[in-house]
Design brief:
It catalyses: Hydrolysis of (1->3)-beta-D-glucosidic linkages in (1->3)-beta-D-glucans. It comes from Corymbia citriodora subsp. variegata. Glucanases play a role in cell expansion during growth, in cell-cell fusion during mating, and in spore release during sporulation. This enzyme may be involved in beta-glucan degradation and also function biosynthetically as a transglycosylase. The two termini are about 15 Å apart. With about 325 residues, this protein is α/β, with parallel strands linked by helices. The protein is built from 11 helices and 8 strands. The radius of gyration is 18 Å and the shape is globular. It has an 8-stranded parallel β-sheet. It has a single domain, classed as Glycosidases (TIM Barrel), CATH 3.20.20.80. The chain binds 2-acetamido-2-deoxy-beta-D-glucopyranose. 2-acetamido-2-deoxy-beta-D-glucopyranose (NAG) binds next to helix 9. 2-acetamido-2-deoxy-beta-D-glucopyranose binds next to helix 9.
């Protein structure tokens, strides 16, 4: 889409949400507190060569040491960071009840100062992928099928009725290849307000997945999800290229290739105003897709350094 300079100057709201994924612990397992999240969110906003990385995708509503509302919420309010909230959905109904309870507690505690920042709420993260043959073969851990996710989405909508988050968009995040199996996912696609897509050409080792093909592979993945999404929004909830780690098919992990992936795929997403949460600012457990693989664009540190590991400016 093309806008005149004058129009784009007066319509900053058209700029898409951009941000990173944030786990609830540091890579050594230490639980993050409000000041830790605030340091990360502030570093993201001040990353050299970039502007506008002021959104955070979370994986859980629960603060690990207290069982209360995750402290990323007050950190986001303090820093003006928008939020794609997440509820972990693969640990059974009792644990999901705790996720929902903290979501409702957050809505009632923080009210409009939270609601104004919430871009969406994801029920689950790659739950379906983990119960596909591919996920099972990768020992990806417990998951949940589309029918179970639809049930949970209805529970969340019911719990949020009458709270300040009653009109928030509720969706789900999964891998691109999971979404496009519509014989399985159609009821879930019908149920969600948005589809969050995780796509990593680095891991697509059954394809010719060298860095040279990475941008076309990513957009092919993304567009296949758009094709099944109907009128629903498709958001990029995870993508990135590792700066170190094992070779995956033809994909080599290196600083140079991570920079190329950002410059090509990343900058095309940002220029196209696609809602994007990059993987990742600094690596953290337990959400690193595979151990030994480092996706960070900066850090590690507390707060992470604002000087990135490679050039993040979108010059072209
Ligand atoms: C799609 O999902 C169905 C389960 O409904 C499964 O049997 C089938 O193997 C899946 N197809 C692919 C290509 O994964």
């Amino acid at each position: 889409m093309r806008f005149s300079t004058a129009l784009s100057l007066v319509t900053p709201a058209l700029a898409a949400t951009k941000g990173f994924n944030y786990g609830s612990t540091f890579s050594d397992g230490t639980i993050k507190h409000q000041s830790d999240f605030q340091g990360e969110f502030t570093s993201a906003q001040n990353l050299v060569g970039t502007s506008g990385f002021n959104s955070a995708r979370l994986y859980t509503m629960i603060q690990g040491d207290t069982g209360g509302v995750i402290e990323a919420i007050p950190a986001a309010i303090a820093t003006g960071t928008t939020l794609l909230l997440g509820l972990w959905a693969s640990a059974g109904q009792a644990d999901f009840n705790n996720e929902v309870a903290q979501l409702v507690a957050a809505a009632n505690t923080y009210g409009s100062s939270l609601a104004d920042l919430v871009v969406g709420i994801s029920v689950g993260s790659e739950d379906i992928y983990r119960v596909t043959p591919l996920g099972v073969a990768s020992n990806a851990g417990p998951g949940l099928d589309p029918e179970g996710l639809v049930n949970y989405i209805n529970q969340v909508r019911g719990a949020l009725a009458g709270t300040p988050l009653a009109s928030a968009m509720v969706g789900h995040v999964d891998t691109y290849n999971t979404w496009i199996n519509t014989t399985w996912t159609q009821p879930l696609i019908d149920s969600v307000d948005f589809l969050g897509v995780d796509a990593y050409p680095y891991y697509e080792s059954t394809k010719a997945n060298s860095i040279d093909n990475s941008m076309s592979t990513f957009w092919d993945d993304f567009n296949q999800v758009v094709a099944v999404a109907g009128s629903k929004g498709v958001w990029v909830t995870e993508t990135g290229w590792p700066n170190q780690g094992p070779t995956s098919g033809q994909a080599v992990a290196s600083i140079a290739n991570a920079e190329t992936y950002w410059q090509q795929t990343g900058c095309s997403l940002f220029a196209g105003n696609v809602m994007t949460w990059w993987f990742t600012l600094q690596d953290q457990q337990p959400v690193v897709p595979s151990s030994g693989v480092v996706f960070a664009v900066t850090g590690p540190g507390n707060p992470p350094p604002t000087t990135p590991l490679y050039d993040l400016s979108c010059s072209a």
